[in-house]
Amino acid sequence: MSAIHEQAMHNIYKQVYERLCKNMSQAQHASLQLLVQRLLVAAGGLEYIGSLRLLVLQGNDRSSARLLATLRAAQLSIALRAPETFQLRVLVACLPAPSPPRPRPRGSGSGCLDSHQRLFNTLFLDDDVRVELQMIDGCEVVPFCCKSAKSTERWALARNALLLFSHLIDARPEALFGSRIHLELADALRLALSGQQEGDVVVTAMPARQRRRYLSWARRTLRLAGEHGLRDMPQSLAGLFEGLGALHGVAGTALERGRSDQAPAREQAVLRVIAVDDLLPQMPVRDQLDEFLNCPESASDGKPLSAFLDPLAIMHLHEVRTHGIQTNTPRDLLQLARSPTQTKPEQPDQDRFDKTYGITQTQIACALFSPIANHGRDLERYLQCRHREMLVALPYLHRALQGKPCPEPIKDWLIETSGLTLGQLRAIYEGRIRPASRRMLANLARRDVQLRLLRQLPASAPSRCKASP
Hints:
This protein is of the alpha/beta class and 469 residues long. 47% of the residues lie in helices and 7% in strands.
């Protein structure tokens, strides 16, 4: 029975390979053959190809889908002519959290996990023992599951980092989910590579120019964090992820006292990288392979680093900020503006932060308004916009933030509305943040997720984002 099953699976894999080849252009066929040769050289020859383990970071764009399809074709091509082939490890990343599958009307978009699952089914990856499918779930790397139940405890560090960054530094959505998000991604990669072996190789199709920009940004970020025990610049990719992942923790605990920031010194194994951007050039239009893979149209197409960020999260924050931080805006306008036909199926987008991070809509609005900093300079305006019933308690709110005696319900209201502890709120109110942390976080706020410089705030505005004029 085992032999019959093995033969049946062999025939299925052969059909998958033939379908992939049928939908490839002549140039893609040539790229596939060159990729096979490059992998054989990396393994040290055909007899060692079974010991080669490839890790690919899977984004939700056409470039990522093409890369995975080409790697799959290479894996099956070698398997058809050799006893063994390389192992493939796919790590799905879509921060801050992948949108789950949901009922949707005809012609509408689908969730990120749903798109990945369809791609994996097309390539027949789920049941192949030579393929390992994983996903980032907060501070853990877990097996890929389209219906995975998320735990807010896994996202506690990311939640804290996001809220503190918004209140202290910059509340613009592009800054909140800009270069700062790469620290979270690096932390997940650090976990994924923690048990790496000698044959492990990272495969990337990121263009060389973008790779150089990323490395330059990473080294600058680590230099600015030199006071956090990261004085020795990592020379390997694994060491780079280790350092950046440690900074994700620093960004989430910038206000805490009495805690050691010294990054643990660990021996870093050399992690090899195979860049295949020269074999898989960026194609601006959809082709036959894209149609076969059912690649979704994505705003991340042609933007490599954006492929790991869920654009719906940024759109959501923009809607909240646009409609929620203007004076006299009714509270119900904080709900996303949608057409009547979209309201019901798109509802999960509104509570994505609540289900993942444990951040409510009220706490998102508070973070985007940043009313606590600078001794509560904008606290009164925030109450006028969002909580008129609390205007009468404004003096008590200031007393609570100053550490003076005040009614307990006032303290509870501050904690519930902001999502932060009273100690954190008082530190934000007084501007207590380590100089090195402020310097590093301010540098993160300067660039978007593509690591391009963001438009600077007006000189008259504080370092954090305020209400739109």
